[in-house]
Amino acid sequence: MSDVARPMRRLLRIPPVPLAILVGVVLGGLLVLVSGGNPVEAYAAIVTGSLAWDSLPNTLNWAVPLVGMTLVAAIPLRGGMINLGGDGQMVIGGLVAALVPLYLPGPGPLLIVVAILAAMVASGLYATIAAWGETRHGIPMLISSLLLSYPAIGICSYVVGFPLRDTTTGLAQTPMIPEAARLPVLSGPLNAGLLVMLVVAVLVVLYDRFTVGGYELRMRGLNARFAGYGGVPLARQMTGVMFASGAIAGLVGALIVLGSQFRFQDGALLSPGYTWSGLMAALLAGGEPLGAILAGAFFAALQTGGFAMQRETSIPRVLTMVLQSIIILFLAIRHGVGRRRETR
Amino acid sequence: MLDFITPFLVNSAVQAITPILLAALAGTLCGRVGVFNMALEGQMLVGAFAAVVGSYATGSALGGIAAATLATVAFSLILAYGVTVFRGDAVVICVGMNLLASGLTAYLLRQMFGVSGTFSDPAIVGLEKIRIAAINGWPVIGWIFSRQTALTWVAWILVAVVTVVMFRTPLGLRLRGVGEDAEAAETMGVDVTRYRIVTVLVAGAIVGLAGAQLSLGTVSIFSEDMSAGRGWIAVVAVMLGRNHPLYAALACVLFGFADAFSVRLQGQGLPNQVTDVVPYVVTLVALVLTHTKRRRRQDPTITASP
């Protein structure tokens, strides 16, 4: 086995994440080449389409939900847990955030705050069901969180498809929320959601670094048994972590609905695939929040650039998804090579 | 209550169960050697895509099956070597594989056939439904066994074969040993790494069949993300069946009939958003029921990292 490891070790002197990105770019380039495209053109389109001055606002706009969903995955991952139910939790948040301003009276700014908080609480509580299943019945949260997503999506889809549907359009969606209850615009496509997400991201990083709770969560991630032996209440911790994770998923749904779509539309929150991209970004950083946020922003740039690439070349933008998965797969495997070296 | 069991529904339920059953069978194999395979969804998608490509290129369904098997085995190399030689984390690798499958098939669909969404073409030859004249008219038996694709037959035969091999042969004993206690197996002279690699690849071939049934069985098309959660249902079936092929098969049947029941509910005027949820809720309830009985006993094969 050391025959495999030796040539790799030289490569390993490059820091792992840039190396993984390099591998992804090379393999992705080969794929483009094989399918008859020009990889240099493709990558140039991705870079200018995401980082040029004109496209930067679009990238930031795409980054808000993606970084949010990255945090959703990163918080449990920090403690060695995985929440696969982000889709369902986000949809619940989006629906609640749309219903509050539609059916409650009150001044706009207050409605925004109430809508966001209600969305966070609803999604957070839904997410704790999976934690409860594991702590009380031993049902692995990994699978129950995913399975719980389907009923949530189905019920929300039913609610906007039938009882609360906007009957003036042919689509399964709620009516538009009043203008007063929409998030204020900062400039161009950017809205106040960016600031909210920035604050949440900073709070998560600070919590992780400077609080007892953050320390306990990291301990759990390193060795759950040891943390439990050291007095960390594992069951309560899991419930709390899932509530926080779900609440942020709800926040993401609320920010999309209140900030850019202004209504809850069936399927609109899920089609960009923020949950899985976020999970990959969190895995890329091993759950460390700051790294995960950067990875989430990187994926957001990649995906935004993908739109430009599809516009300017004939290469479909799903290529960026292939790049992301190659990066994550390489890191998973490379990490293993490093680990073996440590043990011997 | 049981009047939803009509010949047509039974027949289509058996048909719908086939890909999930094949995937679950592969999952139990992996689980028995201590590899938690969460990539069934992605493997199935790769198989479904390759089956359509193979059938389109060769003009025969058999070519489709061969392509599906080969492609999925090749794709499974990532998992097989990733968790053994490279000691990667199975969950991370599987999440990556699922996304790679989804992205790669969508990319190739556009680049090879110039379509996005769904690819259908008269040149794609579907699997033939075998009509057995002798039992075709019989109630229940005829509904179940006649007018099914060869892969449905293969799936149920494989359930028996895997069960026998796993519990009645020395090979099976070694396989189970690798999963239960890798160090002890190593001490007894079993090459754990090789057993894991080969098992994951064989499982990959089986999931390839699942993919072929998906894209060539009922319909002869490929559409993006057409596995649509079936791989995850198979993962749950593996967990419900605690890595036992027979119990996993039972879980698949439960799911298939919940699915048929939901179609029946839809016929009674319930909106499909609600009825689509029924199989998942039934699965969740089954998870709760099976877990309350043996409270807090951890399943070593699910949590153990290889």
Commentary on this structure:
The complex is a heterodimer of chains A (344) and B (306). Chain A is mostly helical. Chain A has one domain (21-31, 39-343): ABC transporter involved in vitamin B12 uptake, BtuC. Chain A is 75% helix and 1% strand. Chain A has helices at residues 2-11, 16-34, 39-51, 56-78, 86-103, 108-137, 141-161, 193-210, 212-222, 224-229, 234-261, 274-284, 289-312, 319-343, and strands spanning 185-187, 190-191. In chain A, strand 1 and strand 2 (190-191) form a beta hairpin. In chain A, helix 4 (56-78) runs antiparallel to helix 13 (289-312), helix 6 packs antiparallel against helix 11 (234-261) and helix 12 (274-284) crosses helix 13 (289-312). The longest helix of chain A is centred in the middle third of the chain and has 30 residues, at 108-137. Mean pLDDT of chain A is 89; it is low at 337-344. Chain B has helices spanning 7-32, 40-58, 61-83, 90-113, 133-136, 141-145, 150-168, 170-180, 182-187, 192-216, 230-240, 245-267, 272-275, 278-293, 300-303, and strands at 118-120, 129-130, 148-149, 221-223. In chain B, helix 1 (7-32) runs antiparallel to helix 10. Chain B contains 15 helices and four strands. Chain B has one domain: ABC transporter involved in vitamin B12 uptake, BtuC (Orthogonal Bundle), CATH 1.10.3470. In chain B, the strands form two sheets. Chain B has a two-stranded antiparallel ribbon with strand order 1-4. Chain B has 306 residues and is mainly alpha-helical. At the A-B interface, helix 7, helix 12 and helix 14 of A face helix 3, helix 4, helix 11 and helix 14 of B.
Task: Summarize the SSE layout with pairings.
The complex is a heterodimer of chains A (344) and B (306).
Chain A: H1 2-11, H2 16-34, H3 39-51, H4 56-78, H5 86-103, H6 108-137, H7 141-161, E1 185-187, E2 190-191, H8 193-210, H9 212-222, H10 224-229, H11 234-261, H12 274-284, H13 289-312, H14 319-343
Antiparallel strand pairs in A: 1-2
Helix pairs in contact in A: 2-3, 2-14, 3-13, 4-8, 4-11, 4-12, 4-13, 5-6, 5-7, 5-11, 6-7, 6-11, 8-9, 12-13, 12-14, 13-14
Chain B: H1 7-32, H2 40-58, H3 61-83, H4 90-113, E1 118-120, E2 129-130, H5 133-136, H6 141-145, E3 148-149, H7 150-168, H8 170-180, H9 182-187, H10 192-216, E4 221-223, H11 230-240, H12 245-267, H13 272-275, H14 278-293, H15 300-303
Antiparallel strand pairs in B: 1-4, 2-3
InterPro entries (chain A): ABC_transp_permease
Pfam family, one (chain A): BPD_transp_2
Membrane topology (chain A): Multi-pass membrane protein
